[in-house]
Design a protein that fits this description.
50% helix; 248 residues
Length: 248
Amino acid sequence: MQTTESSAARQLDRCSGRILGKLRRSSRRWGVLPKGASLAVAVSGGIDSLALAYLVSRHNRNLEIPLDLMVLHVRLDADGPTRGLPDRILAWLRGLDLEVVEIDARLEAPEQPPLDCFACARVRRRTLLEAADARGADHLALGHHADDVVETWLLSLMYTGTGRAMPPTRPYFGGAVTVVRPMYELQRGELNRLARLADFPEPIGRCRQQDEAKRDRVRRALAALGSDQNQVRRQLYWAAVRQYEELR
């Protein structure tokens, strides 16, 4: 039993070490985790956002000038207001020494539930930015990763003809709050493996709208490439990054 536990601990150390190395590389390259920042971490309750909270918390332990961290959760899904994060996730986040702030979504007149994916994302983003600004956070961390960069770029290319890349950082409110994506270079598979090894709490289930979303259809199209999918995703990722760097 002890040998099995030791082996699992070594696997977690190796996995988290590799991922944290990529996270630090992204910080150096993109400035996604600036020293001494007041950082609000957006947590929806899905695996990606739980991984973000876990990694930022781990990263912060070894900094000479720690980040001032808090977690923000918007009580909203496609059907409307929710009761917030489940107790299992709240306890886990607090076990990482993270302050958790749950906020009600600010819905404007045309935004009445049920919401489609675009409207839901817009409301969440607006609410998170306003909440971060109101609480003195100068950065808002979102849980997008390299696969999201690829899928967003393809969606933009196919449905608008622009092919706009998701940026690793973007200022709002005249620079008062900057959205950052610390997991910009990480892949979905890496985060899923980390979640298993680190025994993340059971995440909130998939949104009922997700299977019908354009993004989900793009994922299925890429999955249909079979063994070529990983290589294609890498090429598309760097194409999106090159475009972003050329245009900024």
